[in-house]
């Protein structure tokens, strides 16, 4: 009988560790029982993936402890430097407070990427994470079952190689932004998702991509000044147009803005003149979700009126529940955007209004290459919008109705 040849085990260590980097660390460690050849291969795998969900064990804290010991044991046996550490763990059905000492050990192993996603009643992120000199990408998503926010206030931040940062469900202290941009001179991409911000300024000369998604602001206004910013995305049910000021956005190419909230506690008459839309005047591609309540229409139109020219704007997409009511704003963009080629109008859901199309629009631009209108099978509304756009544009190359 011909003897079976184990070709996989004969591969070099570098290839075996690369293969094991695609499985979880638990599975990687389990290969140590295969043979003497495999006994210590897992110790040098460049990627660590810890995955755990205590719902699989009916919230048994004994299993939580075993997992915690496993994570710490892996790091204690680790000697080789790391490339990536991924920690996706759910302690939602337990009062267990997971250890974070392993993160101190991770920082010493000079990883390039750290991604931590945790659901737990408490999780203290150690300061060592914010002083890891090799780190290029950091993703921290720290959630609590009762929707509280975990405070992140490191004593200092020193991440000279960090290019990408994503923070989710965190409470960021007064000095966090200043520390961040001072201590991360290479930071190019920043995403803040469902965070509480205690700052009134986001200022960076090197940031290229900024996303603010459903964050809450503990100051009345937020000023964003990033001359190198290329892409901006803001979605919030808490902010409104009077709260955000965009300044010095000379490099902006793409922007996607959706402000759908209204803060009843703010005195909107006392807010400074808005500079949100007018701060987007250098954008090439612009997406706007016009979901503001009637109380903010005056501020919105005031901001539009402050605009000079969207000299670079080639593509404009507008989403609204009341496209006819918002057509003043659309017409303003048509008038102020001489390079505009593509206009897309999307009614988000079934429109609740069928106002008569305005007849008093008193200007016409020469040409638009393409107009796309999506009205969710509302042919009457689509026809009105085509008519209204037609009164603002002498020649339209192509009209698409979907």
Brief summary:
The chain is α/β, with parallel strands linked by helices and 402 residues long.
Ordered list of secondary-structure elements with their pairings:
Blueprint: H1 13-20, H2 25-30, E1 47-53, H3 61-76, E2 84-90, H4 101-108, E3 113-119, E4 137-143, E5 150-152, E6 164-168, E7 170-172, H5 176-183, E8 189-193, E9 196-197, E10 201-203, E11 209-213, E12 216-217, E13 222-225, E14 231-236, E15 244-247, E16 254-259, E17 285-290, H6 297-305, E18 315-320, H7 327-336, E19 342-347, E20 365-374, H8 379-392, E21 393-401
Parallel strand pairs: 1-2, 2-3, 3-4, 4-6, 5-7, 6-8, 7-9, 8-11, 9-12, 10-13, 11-14, 13-15, 14-16, 16-17, 17-18, 18-19, 19-20, 20-21
Helix pairs in contact: 3-4, 6-7
């Amino acid at each position: 009988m011909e003897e079976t040849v184990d070709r996989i085990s004969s591969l070099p260590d570098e290839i075996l560790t690369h293969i094991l980097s695609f499985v979880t660390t638990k599975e990687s460690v389990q290969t140590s029982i295969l043979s003497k050849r495999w006994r210590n291969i897992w110790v040098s795998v460049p990627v660590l993936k810890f995955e755990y969900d205590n719902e699989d064990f009916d919230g048994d804290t004994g299993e939580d402890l075993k997992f915690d010991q496993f994570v710490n044991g892996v790091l204690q046996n680790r000697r080789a430097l790391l490339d990536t550490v991924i920690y996706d763990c759910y302690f939602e059905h337990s009062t267990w407070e997971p250890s974070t000492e392993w993160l101190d050990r991770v920082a010493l192993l000079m990883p390039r990427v750290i991604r931590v996603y945790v659901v737990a009643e408490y999780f203290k992120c150690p300061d060592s994470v914010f002083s890891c000199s090799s780190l290029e990408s950091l993703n921290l998503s720290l959630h609590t079952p009762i929707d509280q926010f975990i405070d992140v206030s490191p004593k200092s931040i020193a991440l000279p190689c960090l290019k990408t940062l994503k923070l989710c469900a965190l409470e960021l202290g007064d000095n966090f932004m200043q520390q961040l941009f001072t201590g991360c001179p290479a930071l190019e991409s920043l995403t803040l998702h469902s965070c509480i911000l205690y700052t009134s300024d986001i200022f960076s000369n090197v940031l290229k991509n900024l996303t603010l998604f459903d964050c809450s602001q503990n100051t009345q206004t937020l000023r964003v000044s990033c001359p190198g910013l290329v892409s901006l995305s803001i979605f919030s049910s808490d902010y409104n147009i009077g709260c955000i000021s965009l300044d010095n956005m000379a490099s902006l190419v793409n922007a996607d803005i959706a402000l759908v909230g209204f803060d009843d506690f703010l005195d909107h008459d006392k807010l400074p003149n808005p500079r949100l839309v007018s701060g987007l005047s250098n954008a090439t591609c612009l997406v706007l979700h016009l979901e503001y309540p009637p109380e903010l229409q005056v501020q919105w139109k005031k901001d539009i009126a402050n605009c000079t020219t969207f000299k670079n704007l080639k593509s404009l997409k507008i989403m609204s529940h009341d496209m006819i009511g918002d057509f003043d704003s659309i017409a303003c963009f048509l008038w102020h955007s001489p390079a505009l080629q593509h206009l897309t109008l999307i009614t988000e859901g079934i429109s609740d209004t069928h106002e008569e199309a305005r007849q008093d629009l008193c200007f016409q631009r020469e040409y638009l290459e393409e107009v796309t209108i999506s009205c969710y099978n509302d042919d009457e509304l689509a026809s009105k919008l085509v008519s209204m756009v037609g009164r603002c544009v002498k020649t339209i190359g192509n009209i698409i109705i979907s």
